[in-house]
Amino acid sequence: MTFSRSAVSALALLVCLAGSGMSASPAAGQNTDTTRTPADSIAAPAAADTVRTPERADTVAVDTTGARSPARSGPFVPLPFVRTSPGRSVVDTLSARLPETDIPNLLQRADGAFLYDIGPEGWPHSVSLLGLPPGDASFWFEGRRFHDPVSGRPRYDLIPLALVEPLRTGVDVGGGPVGVYAEGQNYGGVEPLTQIRYRRDSNGFSRVDVLHTQKRQFDLFGPPGVLDIEFGYGGATASGEYGPGTEFDLYRGFLGRVRYRTGDWAFGVNNYAIRHRVAAHGGIPASRGVFGTVYLRPLGQPRYARAFRQTVRNDLTFRVRGPMIPGLPPAQASMTWTSDTFDFTTAYGGEGPAADTSWVVKSNALHGSITQPIRLGAHRLSLSGRARIQSRARGTALPTGGRRGEVHVNLRDSVRAAGVEWILDAGAHGTETQPFYPSASIRAETRVASTGVFASARLTGRRYAWMETTGFEGFVAPVEDAPAPRTLLLEAGLRRRLGPVEIGLTGYAHQQTHPVDLYATVSDATPPTALSDTVTVETADTPFRQAGVVLDLGWRTRAERGFYARITGTAHEFLNPNASTLHARSSRTLPSVHARGLFGARFLLFQDLIFDARVEGQGWSEMSSRLLHTPTGRLVVPPLDAPEPSLTARPVASPLIGPDGVVDVHVDIDLYGATLFFSFENALGGTGVDIGSLIVPTYPLPDQQFRFGVYWAIFD
After folding, report:
1. Taking the CB of residue 481, how many other CB atoms lie within 10 A of it?
2. Distance of alpha carbon 402 from its chain centroid, rounded?
3. What confidence score (pLDDT) does residue 401 get?
4. What's the pLDDT tens digit per position in 575-584?
5. Can you name the residues that pair with 610 across neighbouring β-strands?
6. Which of 238, 198, 150 is closest to 629 using CA atoms?
7. Burial class (CB within 10 angstroms; exposed 0-12, middle 13-18, buried 19+) of 220
8. Residue 282: which of 349, 235, 361 has the closest Cα?
9. What's the predicted TM-score (pTM) here?
10. Before 577, cis peptide (omega within 30)?
11. Contacts 24+ apart (CB under 8 A), 349-357
């Protein structure tokens, strides 16, 4: 594996800048959270980084000790619900206590992650993990795939951080290249708890999320039991910094959960209803042909000031855990009914498919899953099955009628042998376009001379989204023949602590056969500013081959008091960019080098106030990035020679952006169970130092934005 001289030089430059405090960033994934003091009493414990502590291997966390019985001579312990999906925590702190605004912003802490940040909160940000396309990541919420049923986009924007346990990434139980897992927050205390998370920024955004939990001992069926009642509300809105056409019109979320648990059985039902409406203006075009004007707010005018995307979704879930098979440990099963209505209103004006039109698709889906742990000697096995059937109830964007389904069966084993922790996973999968395809992964973890090391190999497929095989009328041309995609992913790494210094090194490489992606349509008749409105789903005949290296350096990152620092840099290389035009276009979507770093200090004031101040930043080398497809919210591959975004500093019009970066200043204050967040984001943007920055053309990042937030846990 080789990297270009420019990539290596740029990485060295970014490391030097971070070491001098000019660039900074939170800790990378699979690292202990370095921006917080030790977790509070309500933070659920997360699986430790098994590169450092291989004795705690990544496995399905299901109780394998058998069904519990009510204590006869001691306190009653009810049977808990548990997470049934694999993965390692990105951070080990309760998500609601972190200053990040949403799931993609938190996911960028993972090793080798790159955030496609669109700017304001509530927009469809996405993340590339280990150099893979953002559409290849599967997002699982409480054991079910949480994607848009039409576009297949992971709906990170519908799940607030206030509701979830620490995020995890790992093997995709649905047979894809990588999975992102979120579970609803599980509070284990006995006293009533109300959690409030409020945020506001200087561009008119405000959001509040409230979660309340009560527990009561309640003998419903004779044996002692515990009744858990939980309800939550979330609301958000924003006017948008460019005025009409850039609003985050509204978000409303309602959660209701009831669980009843005895010593042998646990039953639960919860409902999550969401309405999410955000502008779909299609970017801020350059004024008078000068691209730098997109950063000038007085000149910026959205392309489509009245267009919007709206999602109305409801998920009703039933769960049960208990000794379903005599002689085996408790199994856990769930059933979810989902209703989803997607609404895209163009409001473009004109003739044809771009006229004032509403594109509506309503679908219903039924999800089912069951997980049965089995203990055979030293082997910790888990057999799981998942299925989903989805039907189109009505709509105007997809062909009439249609039904889709998928089935996934996985056998997972975790065993320690010869001082090595082995984690094996084998799966069989089926969808409407691929009746059968296998998946397999193996991971080995151990310690050598006080250094944690790991290596893994993963062979997977990929599921097609509905619109990728049927199209989205007027905007998406479907793939022809739908060949079976395959991904071979190799990963290895080590981590070592030398006094106050932590060193982590991770390498990855993958080959994608018949890679699937969305490509902006190239046409002489299409104006440059409309390139992202029509796209084509295409696969390449020659495999994509990519590789990367992640270097993570930390100094006093776990110190409770005093100064600390961290720098995480990634060098990524597309190994065969000249194999075809599709290869060349895809190779530019990621920077060859990107890095994040931080330099901060923690202090204790007045005995009770914990003060944490830090400068954070990120930088990236030049790239073409990805275009935001306005109708669907998917990120697509731009053309090679698009005249936007051309920078006036370049000798000729160029589709590349960068090298560039942003610097943020954060202050967190912990006081009596409450955490206050103060952020000054993109501090140099809009100044003489930096006229502005963007990662996704043409969606400039907000300049010098002030953000305030508070998380408050109230025990009644």
Report:
1. 8
2. 29
3. 60
4. 999 999 999 9
5. 604, 670
6. 150
7. exposed
8. 349
9. 0.88
10. no
11. 352/474, 353/473, 353/474, 353/475, 354/474, 354/533
Inter-residue contact 324 to 363 (CB < 8 Å): no
What average pLDDT score do residues 522-539 get?
A: 69
- Alpha-carbon span 362 to 432, nearest angstrom: 19
CA angle 470, 471, 473 (to 5 degrees): 125
- Average pLDDT of the chain is 84
Q: How far apart are CA 616 and CA 677, in angstroms?
A: 14
Residue 496: count other Cβ atoms within 10 Å of its Cβ.
18
- Please give the full DSSP string across 22-39, using - where no structure is assigned: SS--PPPTTS--SSSSS-
Buried b (16+ CB within 10 A) or exposed e, 40-55: eebbbebbbbbbbebe
pLDDT digits (tens, 9 = 90+) for 379-430: 999 999 999 999 877 766 666 567 899 999 999 999 999 899 999 999 999 9
- Model confidence pLDDT, tens digit, residues 544-584: 999 999 999 999 998 989 999 999 999 999 999 999 999 99
CB atoms within 10 A of CB 542: 13
Q: Return the closest-CA partner of residue 251 out of 235, 238, 231, 273.
A: 235
In the predicted model, is pLDDT for residue 648 greater than 50? no
What's CA 58's distance to the chain center, in Å? 19
Q: In the prediction, which pLDDT does 397 show?
A: 62
Q: Is the pLDDT of residue 58 over 60?
A: no
Angle at 645 between CA 642 and CA 648, to 5 degrees: 115
